[in-house]
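Consider the following assembly input.
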Amino acid sequence: MYALFAVPMGIIISLIIASLLNRGIRGLGFFRTAYFLPVITSIVAVSVVWKWLYNPQRGLFNYLFTLVGMSPLKWLEEPRGIFEILTGHSLPMLLKGPSLALFSLVLLSVWKSLGYNIVIFLAGLKNIPNVYYEAAKIDGAGPISTLFNVTLPLLSPTTFYVAIMTTITSFRVFAPVWLMTGPPPGGPLGTTSVIVYYLFQKGYEEYQVGYGSAIAFVFFILILTITVIQKTVLEKRVYYEV
Amino acid sequence: MKFKGRILKGIIYIILSIGAVWSFMPFLWMLSTSFKTPAESIQFPPTWFPKIFTAQPYITVWTKIAFPRYIMVSIIVSIAVLIGVLITSLLAAYAFSWFNFKGRDTLFVGILSLMIVPIPVYVVPLFILVQRLGWIDTFQALIIPWTASVFGIFLLRQHMRTIPKDLFDAARIDGCSRLRFLFSIILPLIKPAVITISIFNIISSWNSFMWPLMVTNSDKMRPIQVGLAYFSQGESTNYPALMAASTIAILPLVILFFIAQRQIIESYSRSGLKE
């Protein structure tokens, strides 16, 4: 669930910013530094800071929300699904979406890995030879059709790579759950209990070594399967010949 | 037409700036809170800049909690792991790229395939191993499991293979030993790769959390991230002190980042590795 939301969100936002940065703007170095800083900072410190930002009573996010006239949210303590909150009705299981608590963790991870994805996308964009853009221009293609018919297809190997990396990292998330949710961690109502946290809980805290190892094995198979599926599905749509 | 172009540029800058503010804001808020008094930190509406500027949170963190000790543990571990990784990667990559022995390529593929196994998968068995060795709560437990890096071996091997073999023959004729060849001829040629590995290693050792959390029990063996985590659970409402502690925990890498920014970003984009 966590990966399902974290991966596309992270990719789309970073792709937009990378393509804007690639338009020969001034201050590229500054922007790159700004976006990259969260990547190297420790997840523990970042979790502590974000927990404070998310604080329902005193947090900065809720303060900003009230400034623009929106009602404050409970963020990490909210077990209700995000679509439920947006629509204001209670919805059946599948339509609820992830809990706002889980979504808060997703937001944090998108923020943290943004700079990394941007740097990878920038490298990918630089590799697209200019002749393709010139050809498109001569053929009379507008910016939008250039984006969909030139940039995105030629960038697909990079997108593919970022997709796999982000999926694997988002399955590995642990520290934010341990530090930011609960007590007990994984709450509210177990909606943020991700697989690595579960593994840690069983295999280490409760010392059920066999059980923990079984989770680890399932986790590994899961990662392997996802990688293989992404590889076969996406590879068909990837244009390698640049 | 020109006017339209300028508006477009303006919009791009606005979007990028919003993004940059979004990336920076948590850090600014952290710094701002870390200089406030506890009472001011929970005021509503909050203040952007501390009205009463105080360094007390830093003093609290530095003297009342074992923060100097945590930092020392982290520094020792980071340096020891770095030295270990550099030695093992250099020697292994040298053997894999310059010597011919039976089963070399099979062995290399075997080692390489370990790269897709994420740490959480083997963390439980590794923990049991370390526990049986009686290493819980020691420096060995924090250092030794991480002194060999598959990525390090792989990256150095890739770079070493680009060096022409003739160089080796020439050096041999001049009476250069194999080890001396590695250190005085190969090493300077693959310096960028060595820097990349060092950067990744320092960052990942400094930020490592789950493993040290598992193998340390006593306060005096805790590296900075684990120390910070325990502190945040014990003092969950003293926000200025929490923010001061977080600032201290990220400061060394932020300084490193500003010094070696170009190398760090290039390393990430070239190797495509993430922590």
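Chain A touches chain B through 67 residues (CB under 8 Å). Ask yourself how this observation constrains the way the partners meet.
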